[in-house]
Predict the structure.
Amino acid sequence: RALTAAASRAHLAVNVGPRYQVGRIRTAGSVPLAERGSKNFRARTRRAIRQLEETGRLTLRQEHPGNAEDTRRLLHEGLRLEHAGWKGSEHSSILSTEGSVRFIEDQAVQLAKWHQLELNFLEHDGRVIAFEYGWLAKQTYHSFKIAYDEAYRRFSPGQLLTYFLLVRLNGTTRAIDFLGPLDGAARRWHPEQYTVGRLVFSAGGVVRRLLVRAL
């Protein structure tokens, strides 16, 4: 908003094109964890935790690797979970594409160098049932990639991982940001929303200004 206002004051042609909404959960103050989401959603989450804990221990294992070798090893541990499911069968998992693997590895190694990388593993009796690749920066946890063991689908393990993250982050950070377009899984937490879009401006002549406004 500040940038578009400044561009307007400078008499620049401005075009703002909203693309999608992103979900964001405040972890400091506001709504208590016990009141997140609908009543039915909270009941299902509590029931899933109770049922799983009847047959094994549920733990959130967090990894903050300090070197490139450990970063790649732990990252692939999580990515194999995604590849073992339907995305792997349809060749749409990250491990299915060499370029995607290289990009994610390089990104994760850089985040580890900045001490921002967080690799989260939800384990049931020592078995990884959900994984999330994210990073913590500017007091905000950014959820970039999540995967889960499809054998545990009925327990919604990805949602349980988010629940345990909220327990850990409550009061120590400002928010969890879901980054991408708001989907059904994120909506269940009743998050705040903000808009991501395209901003184009031009200081050129009449033709360029008309083109910018026509985008």
About this structure: The chain has a mean pLDDT of 90.
